[in-house]
Amino acid sequence: MATGKKTNDLPFLLEKKEVVLVKPAKPTPSEVLSFSTLDNDPNLEIIYQTIYVYRAKSFSSIKGGHHDLVSSDGKTHDLELSSDPVTVISDALSRVLVYYYPLAGKLKRDSDGELRLNCNSSGVPFLSASANCELSSLDYLDGVAVEVARPFVFDWPGEDDDDDDDGRHPLILQVTKFSCGGFTVGMALSHSVCDGPGAAQFYRAMAELATGKTEPSVKPVWERERLVGKPTKTPFQNHIDKSSLATSPHLPFTEIEHGCFNVNRETIKRLKTSLMKECGDEFTTIEALSAYVWRSRFRALQFNSDGKTVFSLAVGSRGRLDPPLPDGYYGNAFTSAFVTIMGKDLNEEPLSRVCKLIKESKKIACSSDYLWNSINMFETMRRENKKLEMDDTTLFLTDWRQLGLVEEVDFGWKGPVNMIPVPWRVFGYLGLCIFFSPSTLDPAMKGGLRVLLSFPATAMAKFKEEMDALLNLGDDKALA
């Protein structure tokens, strides 16, 4: 039974159908799977949500003219005639779950502290919804408030519900149709099961099956035992004394704001040019812009200069391991590069010095030895029932630009024109920052990126000032 609901202050009415469980189209193995040391990190035991935005397209634009779709009921449909994204995506989901059958199971942390996934074909919660507005009226979700985007992805059971005894669903999908013929796909996925590249691999596979392929071009590989560490003989010790970390008058906070900032290609170029003039070295976009964002955040939160501040960057490890991970591995395969400096140095030293520190930490984190040392450390912590505590002093940055999720994932309507993270579920702590690709609808942003952060409401205005200063940086201006 469909229900209509208009949330206060939202400019649309959202009609939702009942949640259904989409099961694999064919029988799949019944087994209990274990996880890697990285997957078992309690800090990754979160659901991260993303929304993909698709414009209305006629099926005559599908590559090759038309495709046949074999649905979960065994019937063949001509995709030229299947203009309903709910039908296309739910059928594609059912078929892709034959390959990614763990995502149709239940995830639970057992009494021994280890995560396990019961592959019982429980199914993926799938919600179909309709909004009585055009996507253009919401700017295709580009720059909209979190409260506006939030209804297009859902939790099931709800955030306030107790966990089922059998565990929780690692994957949840919602397809919302709009009056213009466009639609959104809201995906909620367990970070314990997939990292960013793993999620992108699954999403692309689902799109491939939606547009006529009989199997994914990349077959999924579980094999989480490849990244199980060995506990060290030395007990884990946190090398940073919490009492030495900088403090902020804005923390703790009572009200949070989420900000998304566009940084175009010319601004990035001017920032790199300024840094080169400052020290003579070249820096990548991630090195240059993350240093600027780190310093701007420090200033916005008014951390004390005689305290330490920490920067952490997620560094992908696929292709860097010896032996390498197999193609199709979709578990967590990354480590973190860390930089720790005094607040005074971050705030007052030339920004190029901060960039150099980030560059050096990246180089170290890219080695196979560094990754295995990290894995062994996490395994030691797990067995000692310890957790690497996160705090708001640290800026944790992850770069989503290389995941290939904008323009490349085509369900028959061409690629999405926009993809956004939903901070309410992605942000496990205040310090997380995401770099991600811009919407394709703004030609001026080609080659640029978006920066997503959360702040106490009292500090957001100052951070906006810092970002405005970057946008107004001229070739003849030095970095302040």
The helix fraction, in percent, is: 10-25%
Class of secondary structure makeup: alpha+beta
> What would you report as the Rg, rounded to the nearest angstrom?
23 Å
pLDDT averaged over residues: 89
Q: Tell me the overall shape.
A: globular
Strand content: 15-25%
Helix-strand pattern: EEEEEEEHEEEHEEHEHHEEHHHEEHEEH
Total beta-strand segments: 19
What characteristics describe this protein?
alpha+beta, 10 helices, disordered N terminus, eight-stranded mixed β-sheet
Please provide a written account of the structure.
The protein is an alpha+beta fold and 480 residues long. 24% of the residues lie in helices and 22% in strands. Strands 1, 2, 3, 5, 10, 11, 12 and 17 form an eight-stranded mixed sheet that branches. The chain has a six-stranded mixed sheet with strand order 13-19-18-16-14-15. Strands 4-9-8 form a three-stranded antiparallel sheet, with no helix packed on it. A hairpin with an 8-residue loop joins β1 and β2. α1 crosses α3 and α5 runs antiparallel to α10. It is globular. The N terminus is likely disordered.
Topology overview:
Elements: E1 3-5, E2 14-16, E3 20-22, E4 31-34, E5 47-54, E6 68-70, E7 76-78, H1 85-96, E8 106-109, E9 115-119, E10 124-131, H2 146-149, E11 171-178, E12 183-190, H3 196-210, E13 256-263, H4 265-279, H5 285-300, E14 308-316, E15 334-342, H6 343-348, H7 351-365, H8 368-383, E16 395-399, E17 418-421, H9 423-426, E18 432-436, E19 449-456, H10 460-471
Parallel strand pairs: 10-11, 14-16, 16-18
Antiparallel strand pairs: 1-2, 2-10, 3-10, 4-9, 5-12, 5-17, 6-7, 8-9, 11-12, 13-19, 14-15, 18-19
Helix pairs in contact: 1-3, 5-7, 5-10
